[in-house]
Write a structure and sequence with these properties.
- The chain is built from 4 helices and 10 strands; from the N terminus they run αβαβββββββαββα.
- By secondary structure, the protein is an alpha+beta fold.
- The strands form 2 sheets. Strands 1, 2, 3, 7, 8, 9 and 10 form a 7-stranded mixed beta sheet that branches. Strands 5-4-6 form a 3-stranded antiparallel beta sheet, with helices on one face.
- The longest helix has 12 residues, at 57-68.
Length: 223
């Protein structure tokens, strides 16, 4: 959380892409042009969690294609304000860039594109003011999970853009990602084998959730 993925605006040299580029160059393994560092996808600056990076252009093309064709399984964890009425629900609402604030997205924005997210309530606070929610985006729109939760009346805690409070960092975490990794059989034919990567909840996320009455220290994530 707090790390910018790609260079831009006020962040040109302190991003994840800069770090990856430096790492590959030090090892003599940088096979990308000056503008690329093998990043297959991105996370918003306030979001923590797992991210996939390719080490060569062929891998980048193969992995990026899976994202484009919606073949990637993505699981996010979020702490939201309030407890949704249904334990499991789906939001299928198109979103686009907000008409009054170009840094935001909404269902009333311009150039709307289809967006679908499945949600499941995993845990609630003692006072029922907050909930830990699993989000599975079936599409990959910018700010999709954040917009869908906010417009459903359950803004993510700490999400200043979409109604969260200022006291805590944004409690959104990319917990698990499943993607096809190329493998070869005895005949030399290439197939994709699904492999899952996890990033356990960071301590600052767990601590912040505990401040809200959500004790996640011994909580077993069954996702």
């Amino acid at each position: 959380s707090g790390l910018v993925v790609h260079p831009g605006s006020s962040h040109w040299k302190d991003t994840l892409a800069n770090g990856v580029k430096y790492y590959l160059q030090k090892k003599g393994e940088d096979l990308f042009d000056a503008e690329r560092a093998g990043l297959v996808h991105r996370l918003d600056k306030p979001t923590s969690g797992v991210i996939i990076i390719a080490k060569n252009p062929e891998a980048l093309w193969q992995l990026s294609r899976q994202f484009a064709q919606r073949q990637v399984e993505k699981h996010y964890l979020a702490v939201v304000k309030g407890v949704p009425r249904r334990k499991m629900f789906t939001v299928a609402v198109a979103i686009g860039r907000d008409r009054s604030n170009r840094q935001k997205f909404s269902s009333r924005g311009n150039h709307l594109r289809p967006a679908t997210t499945d949600f499941k309530v995993l845990h609630t606070s003692i006072d029922s003011k907050y909930a830990l929610v699993l989000a599975k985006p079936l599409t990959g729109r910018t700010h999709q999970i954040r917009v869908h939760l906010a417009e459903a009346g359950h803004a993510i805690v700490g999400d200043l853009k979409y109604g969260g409070d200022k006291s805590l960092r944004m409690l959104l975490h990319a917990y698990k990602l499943g993607i096809g990794i190329p493998v070869f059989n005895k005949s030399g034919e290439q197939n994709l084998k699904l492999k899952e990567f996890k990033a356990e909840l960071p301590q600052d996320f767990i601590y912040s959730a505990k401040q809200l009455g959500l004790d996640l220290d011994g909580f077993k994530l069954k996702v």
